[in-house]
Amino acid sequence: MQRAALLNFAWWEISGKCQLACDHCYASSGPDGTHGAMTVADWRHVITQTREAGARLGQFIGGEPTLHPALPELVRHALDTGMEVEIYTNLVRVTSAMWETFRLPGVRLATSYYSDRADEHEAITKRPSFKITTKNIARARELGIPLRVGVIGVFDNQRTSQAIEAMERLGVQEIGYDNLREVGRGAREQGPGIEQLCGNCGGRTLAARTVARHAARRATAVPRTTVSRTICAARVRPRIRTATL
């Protein structure tokens, strides 16, 4: 009798470093973040275990996963195990080598978007990111790279509908929407709690994140991997909206 798969999907949170400092970041990532204490060998082991547990899709996330120098190697390793890969990236800085990784068969992209106006978008990201993110979304479409965009509502009266329309004009087929979740820097009046969760996690879904360097120094023994069942708050898989072209 064949054993049922333990997992369908996994997040691999390989870095806490990010060029942006978004108001709502569930992981409180930013320029001062690190890649943690886990080695490339550790992450390869996690990815292998993920596939052995039955997962068919894994998502590299952060922070900004493209800042991790081993991302291309880890993507290829995941593909070699037979998994498909999604890279959740802010698309702020994409090198030629990273575009090659994005174009590998079995790789898809995901990104967040906030407004059709640069001032409002950048009031959330805290960096001049609107123009380059928009440009790279368009380039991904031109190259035929599968891409989904999550529009996140952070402010009152934010131009989220217009942001969705802007993505439709660029030809993005998979567009979702989610409201801010009060986790990490997203915490507001209510603060983090079970009510902030969407309820879609736990169904054969797992998140693996790196051990922080300061935590590793304090610990007397650090296990090879640290795995927790958690939600990637503001980056949860959104409802799907299909654009009409």
Distance between the first and last residues' Cα: 46 Å
Largest sheet: 9 strands, mixed
The helix-and-strand class reads alpha/beta
Side by side, the strands of the main sheet go 8-7-1-2-3-4-5-6-9
Residue windows where pLDDT falls under 50 for at least 5 positions: 213-245
Rg for CA atoms: 18 Å
Oligomeric state:
single chain
Number of helices: 7
Proportion of residues in β-strands: 15-25%
Q: What general outline do the C-alpha atoms trace?
A: globular
Helix content: 25-40%
Q: Average pLDDT across residues?
A: 80
Strand elements, count: 9
> Which sequence of SSEs, written as H and E, runs from N to C?
EHEHEHEHHEHEEHEE
Descriptive notes:
This protein is an alpha/beta fold. It contains 7 helices and 9 strands; from the N terminus they run E-H-E-H-E-H-E-H-H-E-H-E-E-H-E-E. It has helices at residues 40-52, 71-80, 96-102, 118-125, 130-142, 160-169, 213-218; strands at residues 9-13, 57-61, 84-88, 107-113, 147-153, 174-179, 205-209, 227-228, 241-242. Strands 8-7-1-2-3-4-5-6-9 form a 9-stranded mixed beta sheet, with helices on one face. Strand 2, helix 2 (71-80) and strand 3 form a beta-alpha-beta unit. The longest helix has 13 residues, at 40-52. The radius of gyration is 18 Å and the shape is globular. The model is unreliable at 213-245 (pLDDT under 50).
Annotation keywords:
globular, alpha/beta, 245 residues, 9-stranded mixed sheet
